[in-house]
Amino acid sequence: MSAQIYIGLMSGTSLDSIDAVAVRFEPSFELIASHSEPIPPAIDNRIRVLFNPGDNEIDQLGNLDLELGELFASAANTLIEHHGLSRDQIIAIGSHGQTIRHRPETHFTLQIGDPNTIAEHTGITTVADFRCRDMAAGGQGAPLVPAFHNGLFRHSQKNRILVNIGGMANLTIIEADPEKPVLGYDTGPGNVLMDSWIQHHQQKNYDADGQWANTGKVIPELLNAMLSLPYFSETPPKSTGREQFNPLWIEQNIRSLASTPEPSDVQATLLELTAITIADAINRHQLDNLQVFLCGGGSHNRQLRARLSTLLQPHYLSDTAELGLDPDWVEAAAFAWLAYRTLNKESGNIPEVTGAKGFRPLGAIYWGS
Question: What average pLDDT does this structure show over 300-306?
C-alpha cells in the first residue's frame, strides 16, 4: 500500500500557476514531490475574460477547456518525469480545474480543464468535477479542503483554525473536542482584490510582501463601505468568488468617496479588508487555547501576516510548514486526497461546512489507459 501515489492538481482564483504534488496517504501522509507550472499569459488573459459574462462564451469556454486540460496534463507529466516517479505506482490524479463561475445561490459551479484530456495525455485515471455532487445535495460546493485539513492537522489538545489565503480566503475550524463538528467557510477576499489593483496600476501579478500596501494609508471611509457588504455578516454555510469580489466592486466603492484616493492608499485598504474579515471571522468563534495556521499564497505576504498577528492576539499564529506541509502545496494535496477518497468510495465533503444534506463521495472518474 505504501507504494500507492496520488497526484493533486490545483489552479486557484489567483491564477498564479498550476500546482502539482505527488503524495502518499498510507501508511501515513507523505509529500513525495511538487511542481509549479506557470499559466502562459495568453491563457491567463482568456481565463480572465471568461470570469465576466461576455460574447461568444460557449466557443471560448470549449476551446479553453481543452487547452487547460493539456496544461494540467503537462504539469502532471513534468512532475512525474522530473522526479523519476513510476506511473505504475500512481493510482490517480485529482484535478480541481479552473473555476470560471461559482454561483452557490443557484447551486451552479463550473470548473474547466478537461479531465478526459488529462487522462488521455497522462495515461492516468483522473478524478475531477468535485464540487457539483455537493451542490446537488443542497450544499455550497465549497470549501472542500476542510475535510483534508481535519484528517491531517487535527490536534487532541489544541483548538486549531486553518486559514487558506488564495484568491479568496477560507477557514477550517477544528476544535480539540472530537464531539464538536468541523466547520469551514469563505471569509471573503484573500489576494484577489490586492492582486487586481496592483495589476491595474503597476502591471505586477501581486504585491510582494505587501510592500506597496505598506507605503499607503488605510482609508476609513472606503474600508467601512466595503465592510458593509452583507456577505461578511452572513452566517455559514457560505462561499464566494470573483462574481462578488472583483475590480468593478472596488471601483463602485471608490465612487462613494468625496475625492479620488491615492492608489497606494487603496491597496493599503484592500489589505486591511482582507486582514479584518479573516480576523473577525476567527475571533467570532471565541476559542481558547487556539492555534492559527496559514496556507496559500497569501501566507507569504509579510504585511498581511503582521496585521493578522496584531488582530488575532493573543492567539498563536504560524503557517502549515510548522505542521509538516509547505503552505504552497496544501490545496493541491487536498485534491489528491479527494481523489483517494473517491476511488475508495468514501465521502469528501463535510455537511456542516457546505450545507449539503449529508456526506457524499465527490467527483467523476475518467479512467486512464
Answer: 98
Q: What one-character-per-residue DSSP string does 212-235 give? A: HHHHS---HHHHHHHHT-GGGGPP
Residue whose entry in the numeric block shows the C-alpha cell 475571533 = 283
In this structure, the number of other CB atoms found within 10 A of the CB of residue 361 comes to 18
pLDDT tens per residue, range 354-365: 999 999 999 999
| Domains identified in the chain and CATH numbers | 5-141+329-366 (3.30.420.40), 146-323 (3.30.420.40)
What's the CA dihedral at 312, 166, 272, 153 to 10 degrees? 0
Least confident stretch, 21-30, 38-47, 271-280, 292-301 = 38-47
Q: Quick one: angle between helices 263-284 and 192-202, nearest 10? A: 170
- Contact in structure between 96 and 331 (CB atoms under 8 Å): yes
Helix count (H) and strand count (E) of the chain? Answer: 13, 13
Coil vs helix vs strand at 47: helix
Q: Look up the pTM and report it.
A: 0.94
Q: Which three cell numbers stand for residue 333?
A: 494535496
